[in-house]
Amino acid sequence: MKITTGIHRLGAGLVNAYLVEENGEVTIIDAGMPGYWSDLPAELTAMGRTLADVRAVVLTHGHSDHIGFAERARRELKVPVSVHEIDAALARGEVPNPARGTGPIRIGPLLRFIFLGLRNGAFRTKNPLEVATFGDGATLDVPGSPRVILVPGHTPGSAALHVPSLDALFVGDALATVAVTTGATGPMIAPFSADRATAVASLSRLDGVEAAWVLPGHGLPWTAGVDAAVKTIRDDAAAAAQAR
Hints:
Elements: E1 2-4, E2 7-10, E3 17-22, E4 25-29, H1 40-46, E5 54-58, H2 64-67, H3 70-77, E6 81-84, H4 88-91, H5 107-119, E7 132-134, E8 147-150, E9 159-163, E10 168-172, E11 176-178, E12 185-188, H6 196-202, E13 213-216, H7 226-243
Parallel strand pairs: 4-5, 5-6, 6-7, 10-13
Antiparallel strand pairs: 1-2, 2-3, 3-4, 8-9, 9-10, 11-12
């Protein structure tokens, strides 16, 4: 699905992977679920590109619903897979998932997420055998030249990727616009976070970042500005703290 000029999405909005095009070359940001691989050629065709134009896979973090087809891309397309250095071991499957609980659950939305995973091979995800790493503040030498902003909390090495040339901020699961566990919508800390308090606090690192498109790993694009999304999450966190 085309989001805007130079950005397409794999997935219908529940679990997202993104294709970023610059000068005829493509970076894949997050690799969704393994089954998304079968949708990749058609989406590239819609961009006027092919598999031969893919130059890199960049992961916002190391969770299984983001590494998806990354190993297949690395192996078959001979492209690097990169992730923040803190999440490298998680992406390779060498350490346990740090997620702590799901939070509230509604059976219908959670089953929808599980069935999506079953249809797309999520329970047979292969961790990438090799990953390149980057650090906070790096500008990556891949199409789109994303700038890395470390936003720990969902995982220790969660990163947002700012692409000023496309007026876009890819936030991974630093924030979501849908909760896969409840179906709730709007800016929020994503379920399955390692440390929700840290996740809220680290959003301060996005203060002042300007992007018309805030593109989460779960949910539809947010177009009311980065600061507005962060404010919504902070306000909700403060209200929840007062209610305790």
